[in-house]
Design goal:
Helix content: 40-55%
CATH superfamily of the largest domain: GAF domain
Order of helices and strands: HHEEHHEEEHHHHEHEEHHEE
Number of strands: 10
Oligomer: single chain
Largest sheet: 5 strands, antiparallel
Strand content: 15-25%
Number of helices: 11
Structural class: alpha+beta
Strand order of the largest sheet: 2-1-5-4-3
Distance between the termini: 74 Å
């Protein structure tokens, strides 16, 4: 038996160590690439179902798996339901009952609180695939990965493969990390929905108070004047008839004012598009509707680096949308403009991300200081507290600012800046 000399063995050992280091580096680079791709997908949308389905597709593709599905726990009753699936084999799709209910090893283990980490589960222990080890579309094993948001259990992600090989510890740990990413994304989407519902409720309550304080009281006053006019106009005394006609005119004025107030309230409700569209898309639609309604040359510009489908905190979206809505209403009523441009972007200022909205017109212009003072004193030009003061209040409530630059005869520019969070 010939022994290798130390000088001959050392290069071989070094080469093996070098290859091992290179392989580990490649493995880590691959893992980071997978996590980055999935993080980008999860950040792209707040729609849980599509985000989960796209993530499952990425997991299957990047890890060489065949199929995947996700169970989530219903917030109302803590019962599991199939939230998403990707590339399910015919064996599972042919009988929908196979993908219903919690009577399987994966869910029983998860609901019992035993699944604290990723677990490689043999196909024979999966009731959904039991008895089909030789024919379940070639599936030979599957893995179940818990989905948590912090310490709160949300559900499990199952993946399956046609290979006989089991997932190695690195793959399982990677899947566990992906499960955590998915959990954070689901929780974020749920919190966003809750915030949006809360903002909607707050707006409805505010509008209810506003209707009670303005429209209802105005209608009550109009009715009183009409009742008085009804009595006075039946009188034979010309003086009392004159008073009756005055009461009638007053009732007409109150009715017209109430109609205008009702229209403003309806305009206020138009933040409803934010329930269906991201802020940038809702603003673009608002400008398009404005152009169609007024016939003005109105354009919306989204600065290139700002994502059109991004969602912001609900209070922020509502405030920005309402300011844009009020500004366009004022242009329609008072500016006599020909061209209007609305610009929207996000920017980083001293480490803080901010939303920036600019609305420009080439109309008659005005004196902002004088208009603000008129708003303080009363309805004046018809804007009342729905005008500049209201827009300023919205900006300041969010820690932002609003400025208006205008001179009589030279158009106007409104600039709104509010922090993203």
């Amino acid at each position: 038996m010939t022994r290798s000399k130390p000088s001959e063995a050392r290069p071989t050992v070094n080469r093996i160590a070098r290859l091992s280091t290179e392989e580990k580096l490649e493995q880590r680079t691959r893992e980071f690439g997978i996590l980055k791709a999935i993080a980008e997908e999860l950040n792209r949308s707040v729609d849980v179902k599509s985000a989960l389905e796209n993530t499952l597709g990425l997991v299957a593709e990047l890890l060489g798996l065949k199929t995947g599905w996700v169970w989530l726990l219903d917030e109302a009753n803590n019962e599991p339901y199939l939230a998403a699936s990707q590339m399910l084999p015919p064996f599972l799709t042919a009988r929908p009952s196979r993908m219903r209910g919690k009577n399987c090893e994966c869910l029983r283990t998860f609901l019992a609180g035993d699944m604290t980490g990723a677990a490689n589960v043999n196909v024979l222990e999966c009731s959904r695939l039991y008895g089909e080890i030789d024919g379940a579309d070639g599936l030979h094993y599957h893995a179940s990965i818990p989905i948590y948001a912090h310490d709160r259990p949300l559900g499990i992600m199952n993946v399956a493969s046609t290979d006989w090989r089991g997932l190695d510890p690195d793959d399982l740990q990677l899947l566990y990390t992906i499960g955590y990413q998915v959990g954070v994304a689901i929780e974020r989407a749920r919190l966003f929905d809750q915030t949006l519902r809360l903002a909607t409720t707050e707006e409805r309550n505010r509008l209810a108070r506003e209707i009670h304080d303005t429209i209802a009281q105005g209608m009550a006053a109009a009715i009183l004047n009409l009742e008085s006019a009804d009595v006075l106009l039946d009188d034979t005394d010309p003086a009392r008839q004159a008073k009756g006609r005055a009461k009638l005119r007053k009732a007409l004025d109150l009715t017209r004012a109430n109609l205008e107030e009702a229209r403003r309230s309806v305009l206020d409700l138009r933040a409803a598009p934010l329930q269906e569209k991201p802020l940038a898309e809702a603003l673009a639609a608002l400008v398009e509707d404005f152009a169609g309604e007024t016939g003005l040359d109105a354009h919306f510009e989204l600065v290139a680096w700002t994502a059109s489908n991004r969602r912001y905190p609900a209070r922020t979206e509502v405030a920005v949308y309402r300011v844009a809505q009020e500004a366009l209403t004022n242009i329609k009523k008072h500016a006599h403009a020909h061209h209007v441009k609305v610009t929207f972007r996000t920017e980083l200022i001293q480490g803080r991300e901010e939303i920036f909205l600019r609305i420009e017109d080439d109309g008659l212009g005005f004196d902002p200081a004088r208009t603000t003072e008129t708003n303080r004193q009363g309805p004046g030009d018809g804007q009342g507290h729905f005008g500049l003061i209201g827009m300023n209040e919205r900006a300041h409530l969010l820690g932002g600012s609003l400025s208006i630059t205008s001179f009589p005869g030279s158009g106007a520019t409104l600039e709104l800046t509010v922090p993203v969070s």
